[in-house]
Amino acid sequence: MHFFFPATAKHRFSMFAILITIVTLVYFGLESVQPPAPLTETPKADQFSLSAAQAQLQKITQDKHPIASAGHTKVREYLLAELTAMGLTPEVHRTFASFEKGTANGQVQNIVVRLAGRNHSQDQTKRAVLLLAHYDAVPTSFGAGDDGVSVIAILQTLRALKAQAPLANDIIALLSDGEEVGLLGASGFAQSHPWMKDVGIVLNFDNRGNAGPVMMFEPSAGNGKLIASLAQAVPGVISNSMMYEVYKALPNDTDFTVFRKQGVPGLNFAMIQNISSYHTRYDRADLISPASQQQQGQMMLQLARHFGNQDLSAYQSSANAEDHVYFSFPLLGLVHYPANFALTLALIIAALSVAVFWMSRKRSQVRIVASLGGAVSFILIIVGIGFLTQQAWNLVFKLSPAYLEMHDQDTGHYYLLGVLVMSAVIFGLWQRWLTRWIRAKELAFGAAMVWIILLFVTSYRFPGASFLFAWPLAAVMLSWLGLELMKCKDDSASSAWIYLAGGAFAIILSSPLVLLFNIALGFHSLGVPVILFILFLGLVTPLLVWILQELRARIFLIAGAFAFAFGAIATENFHQAHPIPKQLVYIAMPQQQHSFWLAPQRLLDRKTLTMFNTDAIQRTVPEVLGKESARSEWKYWVTKAPDVGIAAPSVRIVSDQILGDQREIVAHISSPDQASNVRIQIEGGKVLSAKLQDQILSTAAKDKWVTSVHAMAKEGVTLRFQIAKDQAPNSMKIRATDTFYVMPASAKNLLVPTGVDLVMQTVTLVDIP
User: Fold this and answer.
1) What is the 3-state secondary structure (H, E, C) of 560-592?
2) 366: closest CA among 542, 528, 538?
3) Cα(148)–Cα(153) distance, integer angstroms
4) In this structure, are residues 98 and 697 in contact, taking their beta carbons and an 8 Å threshold?
5) Domain residues of the chain, as ranges?
6) Does residue 409 have a pLDDT over 60?
7) The domain 50-329: what is its CATH number?
8) By the 8 A CB rule, do 139 and 741 touch?
9) pLDDT range class, residue 6, cuts 50, 70, 90
10) pLDDT tens for each residue of 15-27
């Protein structure tokens, strides 16, 4: 038994009971964020039907359907037919739209339909709820999770609403086009559709996975009333305001971004689990989680009914509109309160902490200097474990480069478990070693000092994240207060149970957050969830030290090793069943009479990509991408390819004139083989301003000017741009690149291995005289 228990162990039964309780709390926390099991009974006419939704999703994901493809046209025709069969009158909103940053443009075909409410005839604006999802997909995907499942949920919501008495407000459904290439459909609707003025609130559904909880991750600003309504409409919604704080710092956009920037209030929803499906051939209907699909459909219907009967003018932003701090917690639902209360709450919790510290200092001689030392050691161990964890994972990438291609974090959750167990052991042993000089309670108060600092920083600067430090710290301090009032011995089993009672809130709250951070950020940022985990461990330092006194650390090390082994097995099995497709790029430069094969993979699979012989080299290709392109520094495997006769894009200078101190050039660009998109770059100088099809793309001077045109009409587009009048002749060039994801009919005798994602490009370079 000495293998399991040290000689100092006194409370073996209590120790096992506490461990079982901790595991139960973790399980409870993780399960609380999972979608409920799918319903088995037959739904009523006014309810979401999972079976009908699954059948419809299968229909629109049979083929890959990027914008302007044949599959895209089939999906649009199917959706129009389904809406018409419901007795609705859908419209196709055709418009040429540009992304606000000027980097993407295209002809889009949105599907819009309106379900009239009881107040439809009243002369008022902002009276409609907009349900939003996009029906296009990326070229490499079947678009089931991103975003077909949401499109079908909208169809099911409209069907269910039509089977009941009308709501007070209108319901507008926008199935947007061109989201994947630059939010073009949403931008076009916001810019030119007459119904835009009627939109009082927008509910956007988009996904970065095919399973897990459907989370509300982004509200509009001044969201207090929105969050209160969300809590009322969907009591079990999974959300927290820290997601919003993190998302604001990331360079990500969805269709919701367009409406948020227009000042339209709304909420943004997504499922993010199983990222292996995201933008890959595994984004199929049969791999969508039925539980998640049902949760999304039911949630959408609940939201439509709730906001469909609200006074939508109440949600319009005003100068004094307040944000809320909010978080989901089992049995409590969505807890929320005004963000301006965060600092007051921080002061109350800080005062409680000072009071508990003072009581402890009087009773057990807790020392201020030792507690400060505990705070410093806590910061050092957080930084140390976080850094070493990230470096260890980076070493794994170096030793096994195949892991760089690993797209799926969910099979790697065993790795996360192993990392967390190992981190807990290292942290616990470090704290236990420090007890030679600093008492466990002093170490705990040191950690609490760090928490109080973080609480005040977040309450002031990032109030949406303040709940993470406020409520766990408050619960722990109340338990410590109980210990002082009951005068329990620090190393007794009863004290351990009280420490656990105080930490229970933190365990339940942190368990899903650590997992979701790992899913959202991936293993390339493994240090982030580990740091969050160590932060929470700091609050239960006395309990952790007590457990390691009752049970040998080697038990946890063995458990961590088993978790790593399971992670390796699960990852290998997953990638054998779901191999990552090889990418292959064919480049033709007819002007230079050159054609290339390019492979962007770090490891070249010569067995599959047989055209790359032993002479193939890995290098940059600025002649293809342009020296000023960000991708010109990327390294590709390069080898010669045959000329298969694909036409290059046409670039023709229409006019060139001096206007004041500027030179205006008008160019016409077209794609003879109707490419999926045409990238246009102007190289060798500054572009002062530019328009495409009379859409303003840029008004400030840019050195590296680039834009893309998607779904280009046969007649092409007109680009009008200004440069400096004294720009040297022939120093600037227009580079146009056609990109094909489906082999054009003009390609002759091009043999491509099966199981690869092929991209074909042709390049034209034209001097600006």
Assistant:
1) HHHHHHHHHHHHHHHHHHCCCCEEEEEEEECCC
2) 542
3) 9
4) yes
5) 12-32+340-576, 50-329, 581-769
6) no
7) 3.40.630.10
8) yes
9) low
10) 889 999 999 999 9
